[in-house]
Design brief:
Layout (H helix, E strand, L loop, with lengths): L2 E5 L5 H8 L2 H4 L6 H11 L14 E7 L2 E10 L19 E9 L10 H16 L3 E6 L6 H9 L3 E7 L9 E8 L6 E4 L5 H11 L3 H14 L5 E8 L2 E10 L5 E9 L8 H15 L4 E7 L3 H9 L3 E11 L2 E9 L12 E4 L5 H18 L10 H13 L4 E8 L2 E11 L10 E10 L5 H18 L2 E6 L6 H9 L22
Helix pairs in contact: 6-7, 10-11
Bound molecules: coenzyme A.
Length: 509
Amino acid sequence: MNIYFEKATLSHKDLIFEWLEKSHIKEFWDNSSEHREDIKNFLESRKNFSKSFGSIFTYWIGSIEDEPYCLLMTSEVTPAPELPKEWNPYLSKTGKTFSIGFMIGEENFLGKGLASPTLRAFTRFIRYYVDPSVDTYIIDPADTNPRAKHVYEKAGFETVTEFMRESDFFKDIKHFLMIKRLHHKNYIIHSFVQINMNPIVEILNNVGWAPQYVEGQKRSIEKLILDEEGDVFVAKHDDHVLGFIQVQHHQWNRLSYIHGLVVSPDHRQQGIAATLLTHVEQVARDRGNRGVFVDTPGDNYGGRAFYKAQAYAEAYIMPDFYEEGLDGVSYLKLFKQENRKALPSAVIRPVTTADIISMVSLSDQKRRIYEKAQPQFWHRAEKANETQSQWFKELLSQEDHILLIAEANRQILGFIIGELKRAPEVYDPGGLTLMIDDFCVKDQELWATIGKKLLLDLQQQAKQRGAIQILIVCGHHDVSKRQFLKKENFILTAEWYVKEMGTLINRKI
Ligand SMILES: CC(C)(COP(=O)(O)OP(=O)(O)OC[C@H]1O[C@@H](n2cnc3c(N)ncnc32)[C@H](O)[C@@H]1OP(=O)(O)O)[C@@H](O)C(=O)NCCC(=O)NCCS
């Protein structure tokens, strides 16, 4: 099931207004003329201010396999006098709070069990594609709408209190305040490097593993990093290792075997293990493997429940596998046929000097294409690669630049360089601009996957450093990059026009 969200545009206007006329919508959706006006204003890029709605809402269309079926609205909720007082204690203290309004407009999609998966996907979409600082969602069904309350509960919302609505449409109807909180994903998955070994050993000691197990993990990591079939990844926050996973992708039976997965006790319950495991599953798919298997001691009930929750089936019990009296239990997840070899997964990590050769080669590939499109403006300089290599090295030491690279199976798939810049003094956009000039992927098809991953990671880091907008430079002929940027809701703000001057001829005017 491929659910996809996009900002509602004028092209959706007829559809949305058709939905608003449906009886199942009229029953529970604020269908006032003011609300309709607000939707219309939004679709017309908010040229007019919606007085009663404050122009605070963003409207989204959800589609399945390109067929639009639902409308969602969001707005950031901050403490304000007009907010029901019952809401205040539940607003996020660690990030942003977004309110959500939701309807399935298309009748054919009603009653199909789609509501809660849609909401789950939408909360993730906002978090990963729109604003990573959103960690709390609020939704408020009316007491008269038990179906909505039920699907929200299934989507992970919890009822925290009740309150009365004061707006005309819902006046004096009891409403439930329902909250969903997401954990902050403030860690990044990296490939293992040698300096991660001591922190890993420290984590294993803190967890209380017996010395022979710690030694076993250490030796296995040392072996796997040199092995073509091996991978070791760490979850890191700044310079701190929070957890790791090590895996061997067997070729003989095309199954990937997890040799170790451990998260530091101080960082449990944040989804780190699931992220590491999902990452390894993706790498296994990329290698064309059929699935992943793992074994764990029979008395590790937490670990066993975790694998079950990640859709691993208990495969077999190995008596006395770990030591006398301690059985091993194996778990297996076989990928569905269509999910094998899906999108390339990549580790996004900071650039090091060793990456510069690959980056220059990717840039060179791009420059050659650009040169064909505009042979004068983009005429390659004779020593372009040497100059660029030097330039990238210099950027590595500059505080206001962030350089990230995407790597999968030891191959560089793309890179991005962002500069944190102040706007010229005559403009005041309200913060720093993240300016992205060098942004390359190995193949055009990778924009939507690798390009997006690079952009999101850079955006997240830049945001933490005060950036409030992104500016990306893109050649006019670079259709795939332009399409990608459009899909990511970038707006074209400036155009460059180039003209060859030709030979100047002295002419009397
Ligand atoms: C609310 C809405 C999004 C739900 O969509 P849907 O397609 O009906 O929902 P699903 O098919 O995914 O799920 C319906 C669930 O509600 C349950 N349900 C149906 N009527 C119910 C009722 N009166 N009381 C409690 N649960 C009910 C169903 O049994 C099913 O639960 P299950 O999956 O556990 O079996 C949709 O009905 C809608 O758009 N309504 C109009 C707008 C609206 O009410 N928006 C919410 C404003 S807060």
